[in-house]
């Protein structure tokens, strides 16, 4: 197989992430509590760590139908029951969080986890955090740019002098504690805008692509913009990292995977679109197309998942794949089985093929 030549010797990382949505099981009508959802998130992280996966991510929402509003708190709890797995936000809504508090939270997590903390920052698909924390939606992009700039400065310097537009200035401020790692790894999450991909390249940080369906080829221009921008401002391509995140369900066969997952996937988009003020229904024909071998939805047998990741690697030359496996009210027993198959059937092949 012809592999993309960018970062060809980098290790390939495989993991899972969660947004901790709280939706009804479409088959039973039962909805679990926020307490049970958090317990299951921690248990999923333990399973992933014990199975040898590389990364576990937790996302941020500020709604009653999601269980996690503070990823560093949840990741700190996970750090105490895991040993090796990297712990990241997926994503932190950086436009509406104070960068100093964010840095201190993740530096503390880094110390508690013995150097396993990361941040993936995004602008957020939901906007509830803007009025909640007193920010103007019109400042959406400017907030993200300023906060990214400040976070990266905090990551480099123990004593910081800084002046911006949206928060009080800093003058010889001590930024404590310092992380165990030299710097906290920082990625920018991108859903589809070239401007965000270019920003990640300009800063020389990781690019985390959220590819939730359709033809993965449409994301290749974003990766190209990322690398081109990084090259133009003088960053070494050897230091750049690309990750792919997406929805996934793994079963022993393709047909079993589609049969199991369809009611939950349809249910997920039904309530997510309602949250966004849209009405929609996913037909079985729609789902069959989304789960077909040519598309980006990671649903199928281990062999099908492997083929999809390898195909995307030919396009992107990425170094990381994270699967979101717990959406739509899916019972934890099925999530646990998916983690097992990802770790035992998918990961060994991908590591063998992509780490040569």
UniProtKB/TrEMBL annotation:
<dbReference type="Pfam" id="PF00296">
    <property type="entry name" value="Bac_luciferase"/>
</dbReference>
<dbReference type="GO" id="GO:0005829">
    <property type="term" value="C:cytosol"/>
</dbReference>
<dbReference type="InterPro" id="IPR036661">
    <property type="entry name" value="Luciferase-like_sf"/>
</dbReference>
<dbReference type="InterPro" id="IPR011251">
    <property type="entry name" value="Luciferase-like_dom"/>
</dbReference>
<protein>
    <submittedName>
        <fullName>Probable LLM family oxidoreductase</fullName>
    </submittedName>
</protein>
<dbReference type="InterPro" id="IPR050766">
    <property type="entry name" value="Bact_Lucif_Oxidored"/>
</dbReference>
<dbReference type="GO" id="GO:0016705">
    <property type="term" value="F:oxidoreductase activity, acting on paired donors, with incorporation or reduction of molecular oxygen"/>
</dbReference>
<dbReference type="GO" id="GO:0004497">
    <property type="term" value="F:monooxygenase activity"/>
</dbReference>
<keyword id="KW-0503">Monooxygenase</keyword>
<keyword id="KW-0560">Oxidoreductase</keyword>
<feature type="domain" description="Luciferase-like">
    <location>
        <begin position="13"/>
        <end position="318"/>
    </location>
</feature>
């Amino acid at each position: 197989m012809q592999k993309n030549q960018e970062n060809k010797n980098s290790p390939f990382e495989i993991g899972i992430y969660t947004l901790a949505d709280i939706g009804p099981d479409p088959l039973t009508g039962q909805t679990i509590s926020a307490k049970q959802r958090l317990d299951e998130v921690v248990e999923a992280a333990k399973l992933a760590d014990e199975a040898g996966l590389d990364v576990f991510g937790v996302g941020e929402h500020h709604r009653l139908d999601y269980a996690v509003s503070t990823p560093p708190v949840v990741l700190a709890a996970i750090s105490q029951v895991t040993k090796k797995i990297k712990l990241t936000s997926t994503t932190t809504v950086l436009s509406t969080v104070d960068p100093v508090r964010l840095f201190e939270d993740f530096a503390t997590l880094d110390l508690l986890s013995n150097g396993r903390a990361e941040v993936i920052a995004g602008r957020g698909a939901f906007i509830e955090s803007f009025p909640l924390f007193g920010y103007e939606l019109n400042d959406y992009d400017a907030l993200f740019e300023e906060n990214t700039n400040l976070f990266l400065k905090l990551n480099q310097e123990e004593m910081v002098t800084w002046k911006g537009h949206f928060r009080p200035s800093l003058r010889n401020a001590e930024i404590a504690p310092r992380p165990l790692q030299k710097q906290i790894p920082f990625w920018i999450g991108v859903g589809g805008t070239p401007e965000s991909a270019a920003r990640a390249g300009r800063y020389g940080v990781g690019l985390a692509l959220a590819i939730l369906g359709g033809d993965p080829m449409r994301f290749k221009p974003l990766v190209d913009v990322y690398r081109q921008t990084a090259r133009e401002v003088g960053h070494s391509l050897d230091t750049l990292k690309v990750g792919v995140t997406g929805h996934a369900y793994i079963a022993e066969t393709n047909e079993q995977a589609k049969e199991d997952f369809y009611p939950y996937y349809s249910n997920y988009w039904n309530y997510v679109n309602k949250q966004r003020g849209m009405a929609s229904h996913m037909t079985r024909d729609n789902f069959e197309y989304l789960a077909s071998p040519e598309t980006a939805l990671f649903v199928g047998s281990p062999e099908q998942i492997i083929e999809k990741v390898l195909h995307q690697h030919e396009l992107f030359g990425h170094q990381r794949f994270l699967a979101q496996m717990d959406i739509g009210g899916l019972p934890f027993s099925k999530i646990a089985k998916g983690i097992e198959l990802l770790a035992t059937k998918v990961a060994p092949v991908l590591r063998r093929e992509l780490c040569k």
